[in-house]
Amino acid sequence: MAYNIYCFDSGDSVEGKGYDSVHPDQIEWYQAKAESLKNGNGGNYVPSVVFQHIIVQEIYDKLFPVAKNYNLGVREYDSETYDLVPIPNLSNMRDGYIFEKPCPGYYNHGQLEAMSKNGDVRAIFCGHDHYNSFTVEIDGVDIVNTPSIKPHILLRKINWGPRVITLHEDGGYESRVLTACELAEKQGSELVSVGGVSRVELFMVKIWKAFADFSQNIWKKVTDLIYKF
């Protein structure tokens, strides 16, 4: 068995609190399934990827570790409230863009901890946060946020589109967002008319992307220095 794919229902919302998350009984099911696959694979855990809607709460440990006591906080995490922070830790981000605060579940039932301990899960692929598109490694597991496939405002269109994932038999994987603007430039594509991406917009998106990439490279260096101190 070269690869295993887990699909989890991360729920919707917790009444009076915030968003939902993967629950303890689901984590127990995962642990039992991982061991079962291991037993049938010569005693070795089967490389796996996970798909779910809502991102794990630990995203604030590595990507937004300075987020504390913001008065607009919408969830509680380790007795602190978290919301939009001025400086994300871009030095920990492998690729992509951050255009909005991540919105994990209100409760953390230990999903990432369990998967990190086993070492079988290579990546957890999430959506939920429409504008974000990034990969960040946390405790040996890649947390990969994929943007909405629907068109939004112009400046978000640099990462609007589906994510393409390639799984390798050696347990590795590759992924990238195949942007609608990229497809719209291909000869014969109907996305320009169907998706509402005009040639003028394509040109503006290219300029915005160049600026965003340039700015992000600078901020990576700045945040790297900030988090060293």
What does this structure look like?
- There is one protein chain.
- The chain is an alpha/beta fold and about 230 residues long.
- It has a single domain, classed as GpdQ, beta-strand dimerisation domain (Transcription Regulator spoIIAA).
- Helices cover about 30% and strands about 20% of the residues.
- The protein is built from six helices and twelve strands.
- A six-stranded mixed β-sheet has the order 1-4-8-10-9-7.
- It is globular, with a radius of gyration of 19 Å.
- The termini are far apart.
Q: Please report the first level of CATH classification, the CATH class.
A: Alpha Beta
Helicity level, as a percent range?
25-40%
The total count of strands amounts to 12
- Structural class based on helices, strands and sheet pairing: alpha/beta
Q: H/E element string?
A: EEEHEHEEEHEEEEEHHH
Radius of gyration: 19 Å
Number of domains: 1
Please, what is the CATH homologous superfamily? GpdQ, beta-strand dimerisation domain
Calculate the mean pLDDT score and round it: 83
Oligomer: single chain
Q: Trace the largest sheet across and list its strands.
A: 1-4-8-10-9-7
How many helices in DSSP terms? 6
Shape: globular
CATH architecture: 2-Layer Sandwich
Residue runs with pLDDT of under 50 for 5 or more positions: 69-74
